[in-house]
């Protein structure tokens, strides 16, 4: 379902446990660790290409072991995920998969998910994958792959935007999704579905795996 | 920090693992299981007072064991958490603590967190607690307990609402929080902090434990 990514950014939430994200991680040429995520990568036997962040939460032994790969970014205004994603962009990456961005602290989960919409303009393709599902940011009318019965949720990041869907079991017709739960728990009826957006109203699409 | 609750609703996300939520669960007189959460409660040696939902995801043996405690609610428009919370309200509960509402599927996590704001009008006190932090919905200017250095995040559920804070390290001054991440990763400076809201603009306050 998900084409390989050249670059994977690993955030400091729950490290992936299941086959799909672990395969995509191992197949990536470039692996960027957000600060303390270096520990979980090391435990999984994966050497990060780069470690990015303020390095508050990295053990001294990793500072030594990966000395040439550390990129310290001090900026209180942005979180470690954004520092790593910007590093990927500045390194010329055009497609980035984000792992480990959810789970554990809920404020980090919510922040990271919403930031995905901001990252969409930086890359040709950027998605956020967990053991449970994948978030895809869309900024214009988009058709996505699915399988019949696949659970689909839509999260509007601009409550004034209007959304229309086709190929979902409970159609949405030119509607605003003002509460986060209003677009949740829909279901694909076939091999694809289409989300039609009003201009300038990004939406996050979540599909279960 | 958290006064005991008479009623705890256990949703079907990650079952609590840490001392505080488990203590509040064991001290509650009324424990309502959202559908499949009965399994985790049973494994923890806790008998639910009631099991509420469409009961899609409950094992036949629990249907028999807890036959007199099962309340089937068929309604495609609301999720199992809302069914259980409404059951608590109809049972006369005035204060409800929600556990197990986050973790696992991110669409459920986002939906459940946003629904907490809707539940605020049903009770004198309602909060959502995980192993990492607690969400408190506020509908008017409110002062909350804290400890110096405690991480605090604010999530605006009405992007038009304006927010002012005192007692936080990075003050917010009559500002709209249009993206979910904009109010995250703040920090209490003392034993309490105050959020001032414009009317009709609910906010979820997250404090780490």
From TrEMBL, chains A, B:
This is Thiamine diphosphokinase. Keywords: ATP-binding, Kinase, Nucleotide-binding, Transferase. The keyword ATP-binding applies. It comes from Parabacteroides acidifaciens. GO terms for biological process: thiamine diphosphate biosynthetic process; thiamine metabolic process. Gene3D superfamilies: Thiamin pyrophosphokinase, catalytic domain. Residues 133-197 form the Thiamin pyrophosphokinase-like substrate-binding domain. It holds the Pfam family Thi_PPkinase_C. Transmembrane segments: none annotated. Its EC number is 2.7.6.2. It is an enzyme of class 2 (transferase). It comes from the Bacteria. Residues 23-119 form the Thiamin pyrophosphokinase catalytic domain. One of its GO terms (molecular function) is kinase activity.
